[in-house]
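Why should sequence recovery work at all? Because a backbone constrains its sequence more than one might expect. Tight turns favour small or flexible residues, buried strands favour hydrophobic ones, and helices have their own preferences. The token representation captures these environments compactly. In the example below, the structure is given first.
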């Protein structure tokens, strides 16, 4: 089963097969070198080049969890959620219990609309590490989608207690209260997010929308 899943993600790399050429001036002798170059290209926005190096890295060692994980991140950059999930599943099989990969899996399933799967992952993560705010915030979003407001707000409060200085907690909290049609509380959350990061574009765009409803000093 594990071998079949890994072979599946390797086949997904065919889309990168002829898309870019490995540059020989780079040190490509080791998988680690290939991954470093791939990450550098990805951070620079060069998705095609990054994909080629990750493909070569996985070809060198199909059982490297970090190579599959980086491929998943590349698929996410392209908003290819289905293939990202496949790559993440390969990565977690090779590195069971890795919290970062599990969080990516949960959040990607949530974006893809696999709500129950995402919820199960968030619950699993919260039980393994109660100090992480992300699973509680994810559960708060999911409960809000299901109109389970008490559960949503309780989960949001847990996230706030763990991470009182994380702007995403207050931004997502504001979105949850908007969904609940509690405009006043939503505004409080967005203002708190703005205080934590006054330059965040998404937060500022949201506050600008409120100017049509309320006067914000």
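From this structural description, the recovered sequence reads:
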């Amino acid at each position: 089963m594990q071998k079949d899943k890994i072979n599946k993600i390797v086949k997904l790399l065919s889309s990168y097969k002829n898309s870019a050429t490995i540059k020989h001036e780079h040190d490509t002798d080791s998988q680690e070198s290939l991954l470093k170059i791939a990450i550098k290209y990805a951070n620079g926005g060069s998705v095609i080049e990054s994909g080629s190096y990750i493909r070569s890295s996985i070809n060198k060692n199909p059982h490297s969890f970090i190579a599959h994980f980086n491929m998943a991140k590349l698929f996410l950059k392209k908003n290819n959620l289905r293939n990202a999930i496949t790559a993440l599943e390969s990565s977690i099989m090779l590195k069971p219990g890795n919290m970062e990969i599990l969080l990516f899996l949960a959040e990607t399933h949530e974006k893809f609309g696999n709500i129950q799967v995402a919820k199960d992952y968030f619950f699993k993560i919260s039980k393994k590490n109660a100090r992480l705010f992300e699973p509680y915030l994810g559960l708060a979003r999911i409960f809000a989608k299901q109109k389970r407001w008490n559960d949503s707000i309780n989960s949001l409060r847990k996230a706030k207690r763990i991470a009182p200085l994380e702007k995403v907690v207050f931004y997502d909290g504001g979105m949850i209260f908007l969904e609940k049609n509690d405009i006043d509380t939503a505004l409080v959350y967005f203002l708190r997010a703005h205080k934590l990061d006054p330059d965040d574009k998404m937060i500022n765009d949201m506050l600008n929308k409120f100017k049509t409803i309320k006067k914000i000093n």
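A few observations help interpret the result. DSSP finds twelve helices and no strands in the chain.
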